[in-house]
Design goal:
about 200 residues; zinc ion binding (chains A, B); 6 strands; DNA recombination (chains A, B); about 10% strand; two-stranded antiparallel sheet; Recombination protein RecR (chains A, B); 2 domains; alpha/beta; Dna Topoisomerase Vi A Subunit, Chain: A, domain 2; Helicase, Ruva Protein, domain 3; homodimer; four-stranded parallel beta sheet; DNA repair (chains A, B); zinc-finger (chains A, B)
Chain lengths: ~200, ~200
Amino acid sequence: MEFSSKLLENAVNEMSQLPGIGKRTALRLVLHLLRQPKEQSFLLAGALQKVREEINFCKSCHNISDQELCEICTNPMRKKELICVVEDIRDVMAIESTGSFKGLYHVLGGKISPMDGIGPQDLNIEALVERVKSGAIKELIFAMSPTMEGDTTNFYIFKQIQDFDVTTSTIARGIAAGNELEYADEVTLGRSIIDRVPFEASLKL
Amino acid sequence: MEFSSKLLENAVNEMSQLPGIGKRTALRLVLHLLRQPKEQSFLLAGALQKVREEINFCKSCHNISDQELCEICTNPMRKKELICVVEDIRDVMAIESTGSFKGLYHVLGGKISPMDGIGPQDLNIEALVERVKSGAIKELIFAMSPTMEGDTTNFYIFKQIQDFDVTTSTIARGIAAGNELEYADEVTLGRSIIDRVPFEASLKL
């Protein structure tokens, strides 16, 4: 791609560093910004600069936060002995939006993935083990995505903390609400039969 | 979507103003930036700010340029009496990459589209008419996209300049190189038969 302007070329190159955005899309986005009032570009540039410069991670759960401790960790209504282990902040947002979880979180910041060169030392696993060692935690819920990497991460953490007095569980795998049974994959359907729940318990939800 | 950080929320909101980028994609992009070295965000923010602040449009053809006149307009090898009228800079880049055009351009900056509230006064049409009036132009090539809006724009410009001593043409519609004839739409195939070219002329390309 040949550009008639170095400034434009530079902006397109930087924009196309983002995942899923190629040179053509980047050019489309930058040209869109050029057609909008200047303020829009300045607000975007400012917001990106500020978020990267000033962002904090909660000291306890590693969730993104503007304070030292996030709002969830400092909320006195949450059960401090119940920890949900998730991959990143998007999972926290997804679980929070269900309103079904009243404990705290621990954000690992990724999952163990040798293919991508991500090992346990790159994640916030040590901090989690410390939290367990401190004795304040009664149950860990593993809420990683049900993939090979997610399962590996769960198992690695489990091995680190199995000698401590803490219960571990994983989120239930099963047929999603509204899905047709016949289109479910075998693994999920099999798990949903093995992990069946008493009918009366299911009525309470 | 509930965010645990105002900074993050702000960045996601600004990012999701871009066309084709929703809140979820914006969150994914911002989280990606947070995982990368700070420099990447700063370079992106800086490039966006700089391009919007300092971008120039060529005084003559309205192409994006770092100088007052773009490299194409100042190139003594280009034919100054032949003008290709295009919608935006991406079309200039596409035509330049063919190497088949040795004239100058005129970038309209959009096309007449009443549905989107874009009228002739929002485009660089007046400047084009002035260029034609000055008498230095012998031929205008309309290279708008073959859509309703493109055709409307072509016709509007044609009406404005038809009394002047200038030839007008449009780029040829026809079967694209490498395409199967049977899958071409009727309009295109019909035009390609009406606008057929002498076989010997086609051999020269």
